[in-house]
Amino acid sequence: SIMPAALSAISNGARNGVLYKGGVHLENLAHINAIAFDKTGTLTNGKPKVTDFLVDPDADENELLAVTAAIEQESNHPLAQAIVLYAADKNLPELTIENMQDVSGQGVTASIQGVQWKIGKGDFVGNEQSRNFMGGAAQGLASEGKTIVFIERGGIIAGLIALKDTVRKETKQAIETLKSRGIYTVMLTGDNETTAKAIAEEAGLNHYIAECMPDEKVKEVKRLKHHFQQVAMVGDGINDAPALAAANVGIAMGEGTDVALETADVVLMKNDLPKITKAIQLSTRMNKIV
Ligand code: ADP
Ligand code: MG
């Protein structure tokens, strides 16, 4: 049975932009010792912008961008949308792509007129080649917190696009407040090590795990539960849904994907990260009353 204190706390939450799918989740929030956060769209605004486009001197810049945009047009990843937008006003030819494949957490592949293209992270296009591309240019860009998307044409890396997503203005304070309550904060991201480190430092997290595939996010949440007993996971993407389900409390950003909203126990309306600390305070107070 839901206690009157819980009912009033739930309605108080709803008025304040936090939706609980049951009193038990509100109660559980008081006991959370660690919180795992997805990066893109959760700690960051999730609206990356292209900052750099580097092309091998032997490659055709217009061809690279036209093909990349044509392939990314078929993907709904935030990086894909940003690349399409970047290419939009450049008067590039329209291309017909074939066999497009969207590899979750990695990148995309397709062929055009018999040439095979691969667009995505370093791991995806080949680590050594991506590290050496244009004298290791990716490393410097990544250390600025930029995400690197490599463009591979017929097995050879021909270019890269760097994108920067900004950390939400409220993220740093929210993390600070959680840490001051003794809560351990971790970022889980599919992005590369250098970019992840830069963003995690900017946000002030205790820890981060990079190159984290969707199924690995679940494993990390389970590992955290082993160490910290009560663990919350905050995310917004389809990718995050299994990890939200694995956590003691799954928290979705209100503007996140439907799957994340359906799977979560708690929804933050308006993507309002500081509401997590509000919710924990509310929960602690309610448990004292009960
Ligand atoms: P995050 O955990 O930060 O939300 P994802 O797991 O969605 O990131 O993706 C991890 C990495 O895979 C991205 O940083 C990017 O390098 C690469 N990637 C994924 N999807 C695409 C795409 N459509 N186009 C290019 N790169 C992609
Ligand atoms: Mg995300």
From TrEMBL:
Keywords: ATP-binding, Cell membrane, Ion transport, Magnesium, Membrane, Metal-binding, Nucleotide-binding, Phosphoprotein, Translocase, Transmembrane, Transmembrane helix, Transport. Its main location: membrane. It is found in: Cell membrane; Membrane. It comes from the Bacteria. Belongs to the cation transport ATPase (P-type) (TC 3.A.3) family. Type IB subfamily. This is Cadmium-translocating P-type ATPase. The gene is cadA.
